[in-house]
Design brief:
alpha/beta, seven-stranded parallel β-sheet, 10 helices, Rossmann fold
């Protein structure tokens, strides 16, 4: 779809690094913004520069795991903006714990945010997107959808589910002229790991993973630009970062080698 001034973009997880970068990138194109996050403080820190001071930005404190809250969010967005052209389901968390130390409450939280948050977002804005002449949905998956990464079973499972959900929506919603893209980033220089750092099985290892991500990952602004381009070119699926391309290639064309790598990682984590 062609992104044009005056279109309305909804972004969940807008208080985080990628969400904030996406908001700024869309604002630069003249879009009105409805920004959602569970943290009011994070939302307030998301500064948006509007070209020529033209554009409307609304901020909404929303728990994406709460159905009723998501319906209220939808109603508030439509009341303020009168329509939706772009929906980016960006809210997500990661939890670095083994399957054995994952509690069922952990699983409920991960599924609630990473998967149900995407489902609820697509569901509540379905009618508004259908009514728009030009619409597109972006669902944030991960390179972890391609592989079973030890220590992140819930993250991998939910992100793989997002990928297949998006594939189904792509097939169905093209009939309604709604583009749908699943995004599979590798490491991005954001603070997502820090949000659940203290819950990790091995906090020191989690800190090392954070440092590696910041050394080898791409900037949030770079990732946002790739996502904007995917919307404009109606891509079904995109990978972001060399690591995403490398692991996708390995798991697709050399699955035995990929499984060996995952086993070695698991052995290292257990040592």
């Amino acid at each position: 779809m062609k992104i044009e001034p005056g279109q309305v973009a909804v972004i969940t997880g807008a208080g985080g690094g990628l969400g904030s970068a996406l908001a700024q990138a869309l604002a630069a194109k003249g879009c009105h913004l409805a920004l959602a996050d569970i943290s009011e403080a994070a939302l307030e820190k998301t500064e948006i520069s509007l070209p020529d001071n033209v554009g409307k930005v609304t901020r909404h404190v929303v728990d994406v795991t709460d159905r009723a809250a998501m319906i209220c969010f939808r109603d508030a967005v439509l009341a303020a903006h009168e329509g939706v052209n772009i929906l980016i389901n960006n809210a997500g968390i990661t939890l670095q714990k083994s399957f054995s130390t994952h509690s069922l409450d952990d699983w409920d939280r991960m599924v609630g945010i990473n998967l149900n948050g995407v489902i609820y977002g697509c569901h509540v804005f379905d009618e508004a997107l259908t009514a728009a002449e030009n619409a597109h949905v972006v669902n944030l998956s991960s390179m972890s959808a391609f592989l079973g990464l030890p220590g992140q079973s819930s993250y991998c499972a939910t992100k793989a589910a997002v990928q297949l959900l998006t594939d189904s929506l792509w097939a169905e919603w093209q009939l309604k002229n709604i583009g749908v893209t699943s995004v599979h980033p590798g490491a991005i220089r954001t603070n997502m790991i820090m949000a659940t750092l203290q819950e990790s099985d091995d906090v020191e290892q989690a800190k090392k993973n954070f440092d590696i991500a910041h050394k080898t990952g791409v900037d949030a602004e770079y990732a946002a630009a790739k996502i904007i381009k995917a919307i404009e070119t109606n891509k079904k699926r995109i990978k972001i970062g060399k690591d995403a391309y490398i692991f996708h290639f390995i798991m697709r064309y050399m699955p035995g080698f990929g499984s060996f790598i995952m086993k070695r990682i698991a052995q290292k984590l257990a040592a």
